[in-house]
Amino acid sequence: MIIFKAFLKVLNKYKATVILYTVILVFFAGFNMKDTKSNQGFIAKKPDVLIVNNDTNQGLTKDLIDYISKNVNIISIEIDEDKINDAVFYRNVNYVIYIPEKFREDFLSNKNPKIEIKSTGDYQASLASLILERYMKVATIYNNKGMDEASLISNINNTLNKEIEVEVTSKLDNDNLSKLTSFYNFSNYSFLAAVVFIICLVLTSFRDEKINKRNIVSSTNYKKFNQSLLFANIFFACLLWLIYVLLSLILFGNIVFTLHGLLYIINSFFFIMCAVTIAILLANIINNKDAISGIVNVIALGSSFLCGAFVPMDFLPQSVIKIAHILPSYWFIKNNELIKTLETFSWVNIKSFMFNLAIIGGFMIMFISLNNLVSKCKRKKC
């Protein structure tokens, strides 16, 4: 208990830092909520689609473009990848379809040419995807029957002209879920920055030469001493985590009490515990308090930029995403993005969520093992 009280006393010196990171999180969460209009219902609106046609505009290719054009709003912008990415990012385009070279020729030859797409991931993009998939599935069925191109196009159009009624059954509150996802994605930075910075400062204070000598000559067993410090670290992390959960409740209301909200909370708890193991490992390695601030900025800011906390993963280069796989932040943010899309909570749907949690748990075990190895080396004065 004495050790725990000493921990809290040292922690009290750095309470301004905890408050600072909390204020930053609230500020950005509030910024994401500036558009508070709720979107509870479905509005029958055509998606905005850009078609990049690298094939000749004739035959089957022309028919595909004509069919899509009848069912969507065709957007015309300069064919430049940077401008296309900007249009998708700012929701000026919901869906981009890239028709490859020799698409018509390869399709008629049963070579299954691949149509590349870019998407905003919202319901309008999903509608555009359904329109494209419907055409391609019907075209594939008739093409497998060995028809000539004219008969193929005629049969495709006869089938697609048969109207069916579509009932949208999704009841996801996409607006609030997106805002809640942004809130927890940004907490990646706040959790890492606050937990690593504070725990490293506190633990290095306990390793001060004079304090360390007093601990050595005291009657307190070193295992009990370490256990008390570990408990204090976990207590601090849980307190910080609870503050952020309460903030999400204040900012987003009843959605936090849904199964989606529960999964966000569970995911964030796993991650902040992982942040504790990172902090303890770094505190065991770092002896210079002046270096802590720089290291924290590298870890918190670096992982946040690489893993999609500040910039959505969809807009990050694939090379960056591949590098991000080695960081626990990637799996935390990936889980947040996954939760946003869940409509049902069967085992099949949450299996990926559990897998990502298991990976975060694996990182925790790895950091604990590395910390034990470093401690063992220090005791032996390696």
- Largest sheet, spatial ordering of strands: 2-1-3-4
Q: Give the SSE string.
A: HHEHEHEHEHHHHHHHHHH
Rounded to the nearest angstrom, the distance between the terminal CA atoms is: 32 Å
Number of strands: 4
Judged by helices, strands and strand pairing, the structural class is mainly alpha
Rough outline:
elongated
Largest sheet: 4 strands, mixed
Q: Give the count of helical stretches.
A: 15
Helix content: 55-70%
Mean of residue pLDDT?
83
Q: Which percent band covers the strand fraction?
A: under 5%
Description:
The chain is mainly alpha-helical and 382 residues long. It has 15 helices and four strands. The model is unreliable at 35-43 (pLDDT under 50). The protein has helices at 2-12, 15-32, 59-71, 81-89, 103-108, 123-143, 149-160, 174-206, 209-217, 222-252, 259-285, 289-307, 318-324, 328-341, 347-379, and strands at 48-53, 73-74, 95-99, 116-119. Helix 1 (2-12) packs across helix 10 (222-252). The two termini are 32 Å apart. It is elongated.
Offer a quick outline of the entry.
The protein is mainly α and 382 residues long.
List the helices and strands and how they pair.
Elements: H1 2-12, H2 15-32, E1 48-53, H3 59-71, E2 73-74, H4 81-89, E3 95-99, H5 103-108, E4 116-119, H6 123-143, H7 149-160, H8 174-206, H9 209-217, H10 222-252, H11 259-285, H12 289-307, H13 318-324, H14 328-341, H15 347-379
